[in-house]
Amino acid sequence: RKEVEQDPGPFNVPEGATVAFNCTYSNSASQSFFWYRQDCRKEPKLLMSVYSSGNEDGRFTAQLNRASQYISLLIRDSKLSDSATYLCVVNMFNNNDMRFGAGTRLTVKP
Amino acid sequence: DTGVSQDPRHKITKRGQNVTFRCDPISEHNRLYWYRQTLGQGPEFLTYFQNEAQLEKSRLLSDRFSAERPKGSFSTLEIQRTEQGDSAMYLCASSRPGLGGNTEAFFGQGTRLTVV
């Protein structure tokens, strides 16, 4: 089983749609969780951290479910500029290395 | 520019040659990571340094790969006797410690390696 698994998509949605991505992780000792965004041929950049209580940043909401070992990202009112690959990242506190999922590709269409 | 910088941006080499890449992290970041990314995949963890100590090395990293961070600042990744399967984007990232784990990791723009 991969350490971090994501549905690769692609997700093709119209502007204004709500879309959700899930990510599962295998190591229950994982401590920190993030969503990164990667545009085509660019480096990954942090979208948001994921906190135990869940957190929201504008149109983006991240949730963590430790019991089921998954995190989610919800994008509301999607924009054309949201088209990118969204990477789930999991970090173990004692190792501090960061493991990435394969990414979920999102295309928002007019 | 105070971000993570990688050099070179592109490298084309013949199979069997050795290549070396350099990464300069953000100056106050003590953690440095190397990843490899191929088309359609997420970054695969290769190795991780905290200051000058190499704390973890992926099983993906064969004996042909070696990484160093001699003074806890810049890092180099060397691939010996390159193979066509080594063709990929090699990404470097740095971060600083935070409470309960990592803070944001900042990535360089990567070195794209093509082995012909």
Order of secondary-structure elements of chain A: EEEEEEEEEEE
Number of helices of chain A: 0
Question: Runs of chain B with pLDDT <50, length 5+?
Answer: none
- Report the biggest beta sheet of chain A as strand number plus sense, adding barrel if it closes: 6 strands, mixed
β-sheet strand percentage of chain A: over 45%
Record field, number of beta strands of chain A: 11
Backbone structural class of chain B:
mainly beta
How would you portray this structure in words?
The complex is a heterodimer of chains A (110) and B (116). By secondary structure, chain A is mainly beta. Helices cover 0% and strands 56% of the residues of chain A. Chain A contains no helices and eleven strands. In chain A, a hairpin with a 5-residue loop joins strand 9 (84-92) and strand 10 (98-100). The N and C termini of chain A lie far apart (37 Å). Chain B is mainly β and 116 residues long. Chain B is 0% helix and 52% strand. Chain B has strands at residues 5-7, 10-13, 19-24, 31-37, 44-50, 53-57, 65-68, 75-79, 88-95, 97-98, 101-102, 106-107, 111-115. The chains are: A mainly beta (110), B mainly beta (116). Chain A binds chain B through residues 4, 6, 8, 31-32, 34, 42-46, 49, 87, 89, 91-93, 95-103, and chain B through 31, 33, 35, 40-45, 48, 50, 55-56, 91, 93, 95, 97, 100-102, 104-105, 107-110.
Present the secondary structure layout.
The complex is a heterodimer of chains A (110) and B (116).
Chain A: E1 4-6, E2 11-14, E3 19-25, E4 30-38, E5 45-50, E6 55-57, E7 60-65, E8 70-75, E9 84-92, E10 98-100, E11 104-109
Parallel strand pairs in A: 2-11
Antiparallel strand pairs in A: 1-3, 3-8, 4-5, 4-9, 6-7, 7-8, 9-10, 9-11
Chain B: E1 5-7, E2 10-13, E3 19-24, E4 31-37, E5 44-50, E6 53-57, E7 65-68, E8 75-79, E9 88-95, E10 97-98, E11 101-102, E12 106-107, E13 111-115
Parallel strand pairs in B: 2-13
Antiparallel strand pairs in B: 1-3, 3-8, 4-5, 4-9, 5-6, 7-8, 9-12, 9-13, 10-11
